[in-house]
What we know:
Layout (H helix, E strand, L loop, with lengths): L1 H41 L8 H15 L9 H12 L3 H13 L2 H10 L7 H5 L4 H13 L4 H22 L9 H29 L4 H13 L5 H27 L4 H35 L1
Amino acid sequence: GNKKEDDDMEEEGGEKVSAAEALTEAKRQLIGVHCSIAELYMTDLCYEPDAESQCELSLKTALSLDDVHTSSQPDALQTIANLRLSQNRGVEAVDYMLNAYQRMKLGVEALSNLVGLGRDDDDKKAMVMEDQAKELVDVEAASSLPGFEFRCQSAKLFLECASVLEDSKNGDGNDENNGNENSSENAKKQEACIEASIQLLGSLLSENDEVVEVWYLLGVAFMAATPPNSDEARFYWEKALEMLHKVKEELEQAMTGGDGEEESQEQLSEVECQIEEINEKLVEVGEIDRCNMEQG
């Protein structure tokens, strides 16, 4: 009769695992719900008298559910970072974002690699994992990544964090900046923020290379690097420009059809503004290049 007992234990063990999995899944969903509530208080409900405290409360609850089993989920950390940025507590936001990125890094960089933006880290080379095994891990990590919109927001928040650190370096940030040690630490974090945003945008590009905003933001990220990478920035901005001109053409053609004229006109104005903005940025890039050549 021993064999039967073993089977029962195995079965029971199996159930236990699935109960644990069910609990983790429930926690994940709850974290998502509390983050969504917090997001609401940051957007549609931001004028409610207790918006900020409700937001903090939701995020505190989300964080309390964030344990070792849900630790692949960056939602709570990213939402707190977003709140801190909106409260002008940007330097605090940086660490939350960098921690959130650690949870996505493997999958993000696996995808980013596909469009030639992945990092060639020494620590990656040091990994003794077989290539094939590593690829499988990466594929799994990539398939469990947060969605496109979430990662696009991550990239934007990282660019915001980088600019907060840039401001604190120049002494006009809202956060205290004490001494050189801190500023070299901040410079490292700034670089990490830019790198994370490039990797995130690369992961988006590998999923869908027809989103103008992604190309545009990649240009912004490369220009925010120290020193600015104007060649890469130009490449991504020119591509964004090309896409916008195509959109403009299509809108103009659609307007001659006479349908939804007002809406098309609005979209057209928006596209024209974006084209103008990128053209201005390309002029800046040209000027930077000229200065560099003169100095060189």
